[in-house]
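Today's session is about reading a structure prediction critically. Students often jump straight to the picture, but the first step is always the sequence itself: look for stretches that repeat, for charged clusters, for runs of hydrophobic residues. Only then move on to the predicted structure, which in these notes is written as discrete structure tokens rather than atom positions. Here is the chain we will use throughout the hour.
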Amino acid sequence: MVRQHVLTAFSQTSLTGDRRDKLLLAQVRNRWPTAVDAFGERAIVAVAGRPPDGCSWCVLDPMPTPTAALRRLLGAQCFDCRVRVDAQPIAQRETEHVNGLVAAGFRPQAAANLRTSEQIADYRRRLDALNRAKLPPRAATGVIRPAARKAPDPPYYRRGRW
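Below is the predicted structure for this chain, in token form.
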């Protein structure tokens, strides 16, 4: 009922932005006093803020934990939102791992791709080998090289009048 009311009120108002959001929340509070507490203001406003190529869940940031009540209010999740929800526990676990690697001296880009202690040790060995193999910087010779010659015009191109 709340979803249907928000969508109907959204389509009937000419207000935009914060004023529209406040109006929708006031209407929901007047008709269903506990709905705002149960769903949250962001979720109720997200019903009206659906992007054209996504779902109502796309508007919410950070992504809330989906519950049966939120699914009924916001509707089905698009593919991107399902991936974001499924990736949250993995991202939390991997963040701890990556933070530990960065603290050990690895670059963040490389640390995000490492998973096992063998991979970490192999990466460290390769970095050390690269550091040992670096060539000394070239000394400046002071020689000025001539500019490259311009390629000649093709034979079918002739200058001047046609």
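Discussion point for the tutorial: The two ends are 79 Å apart (CA to CA).
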